[in-house]
Amino acid sequence: MGPTRSSHTLTLTHHPQQHVLDVPVLEVQATSPDGARCSTPLGLRAVTIGSGAGCDLVLNDPAVSRVHCQLALTEHGIELTDLGSKNGVFVGAAQVLQARVLPGAVITLGGSQLSVNGKSQWAQVPLFPAGEWAGAIGPSLVMRALFAQLESLARQTGPVLIRGESGTGKDLLARGLHERGPNRAGPFVVFDCASVSPDLFEAQLFGYEAGAFTGAAGEKDGLFQEAEGGTLLLDEVAALPDSLQVRLLRALDTSEVRRLGASAYRKVKTRVVATSRLDPRGADPVSGLRRDLYHRLAGWDVTVPPLRERLDDLPALVEHLLARQSPPSPKKNLPPHWSSLLASHHWPGNVRELKNLLLRLTLFPEAAPQLEESLASPFSPLASFEGMTLSDARAKVVDDFEQAFLRARLRAHQGKVSAFAESLGVGRQFAYKLIARFGLTTDDD
Fold this sequence. Notes:
- By secondary structure, this protein is of the alpha+beta class.
- About 30% of the residues lie in helices and about 25% in strands.
- The protein contains 13 helices and 23 strands.
């Protein structure tokens, strides 16, 4: 007899020669004070709720914080987490910082209400059998599901668009699609769309004939032809100006290119994989990319989750990155509380930031205290506030400062909650709320 299914748990079912995750079909539904309703599916990716434009569910409610709370579907149930809201999260009459909720439970945020509703349906999500794919590391369920999707796409030759924040490893996954696909014997050619000069765009991508422009002494193949029989990676394709995206779209539609100075088009048989950077604040996922080009590239649209949404991968990533250093570095060289330290960081630079941090920690162990403090530094580069309103930027600075201040104060008192609370001038109960809100580590006395 098979396992009893519950609409709020994940059932990992092993079938011969494959791994399949049975996932309940769930939907988060919200009602704002003005009666407006919105909803979004709840799957393996966590759902953020708030008044900020970057949230998955945006509530028109002045009592709701910019990023108020998060709902995540885990192997243990539906996890609700307060992400540092000003007015709290309530389940019934109880205020919660973190709770496991059942479908149908009413959650109150300010003047808004939301609930998770099941449809008595289940979806089967394939999982890659290992926590590593083409050099990318991710034993978490969300990454193994992504790896299974990529493994399937690698066997095809159609276009793929890989989206994700900076530092999530989009280029590594793109190379994996090539190396594990039918075009693996062909070349893998990278076109950096973010650095191309508009004047050289067509010459680089499509090639040119002798005399096509000043300095064109002979004919030259473009990158489309250089990648013939292989894969052409259009890295950060949304960085191309609109006029150049139109020219690229025609080449993709027809599988033909024409060299500068030539009169005839040439057929090319090249797989195209594109990457596009996602804004960590959740702006338009195809911002900067023409809709027609997006639909042409996104034969398959793959999104790489940021590191902060898959903190379960941190131990495996740390071990992998340390082993790849030259010479390899053992974990014992890290600070004794490195695990909780890394898990409490937001990781705006994702895996790239983790790699650089580990390198600095192992090369300059004497600088570990300063590096630890820098993880919580409230003074983010101005570039991280690009596109934010004044109120959103102010809220980010305040949140970052509070986290940095409280982490330093708790460390100064060796994780003792009583001493920590006394130094802040607050009671133990409120101190515990602060500790839970910012994911701090204590030596509970």
